[in-house]
């Protein structure tokens, strides 16, 4: 696919003009967020936006209906959430959320600041498209299958496979060489890419980037599948503390709820599944936190139907939408029409929202662009001018 225009990914300094007003996307490399930063975002959402934070599938946060972009950028800069004016849109780094706390070969969160700093220190990499995604997987396989461009996948305690275009390049790296090689691959891609935005779009991209690196690929390669691995509920950490994984209905976190989360005072993670993790809690504190946050709408039950559904923005945020998708999804969840996997799904086209019963993982869209569709098998519930069409997942 050849691209004829620069990518239009929004940031804080370049807002997206959505149908309901300007939208900002705040990059959170590794999905990492301090409680103080979440408090700043909550206040910004309430003072300058529509009062809610949207979690994205790249572990970022979006603010909608902004009316003072200058004030927003000043607040985020002061909070350390906008460390670069030149590289903000290339800081797209996913990391295995529970790495370093629960399982995994290594703690890839220690690599996040190194990669982030390396990106920001390289003037040429400011020209990477905002679509480029870096992935750091600690070997559990939760983020390597999420469609990254350049990534690391731990294969032992101090060894990483280099991923290019979501595939194992065959190159194996000791820990000390891992981030420098990712940065070298990013430079090669930037040199080669022309009008292409993603490694997988570049003809022979994986082979050409591999050939330009000073490493010889081996013959064995990993098969990297897509895993739907949301950390939800009580998660015992390896160090005796507890993390709480919290689902966020339709990935929209009201500012007031965000302030309650920030009040825990613990490090926070935004996951690629648009959920939160509150980390490093003592057991008794964790029980109290869950008891406070569950009534506010956060989900700690892994069987909740809210965890089966994702949706695009729909109306009023997107002018292309045929309907208010999120209202239709919410009605389906609250009236018991989002069913467990294996149950019977309504079939057909031009269906009324109120008659849909859909089983298993499902993505609802306001038009056939299907923005935000998660990777892997998922039933598509897509609005058209005359109603919804259901396309079952594999
Ligand atoms: S899928 Fe269609 S309606 Fe939904 S956000 Fe994308 S363009 Fe808009």
From TrEMBL:
Entry keyword rRNA-binding: no
Q: Which GO terms describe its molecular function?
A: 4 iron, 4 sulfur cluster binding; metal ion binding; precorrin-3B synthase activity
Q: What is this protein called?
A: Precorrin-3B synthase
Q: What is its EC number?
A: 1.14.13.83
Pfam families in the cross-refs: NIR_SIR_ferr (PF03460)
Kindly give the SUPFAM superfamilies that the UniProt entry links to this protein. Nitrite and sulphite reductase 4Fe-4S domain-like, Nitrite/Sulfite reductase N-terminal domain-like
Enumerate the UniProt keywords alphabetically.
Answer: 4Fe-4S, Heme, Iron, Iron-sulfur, Metal-binding, Oxidoreductase
Ranges for domain Nitrite/Sulfite reductase ferredoxin-like come to: 24-76
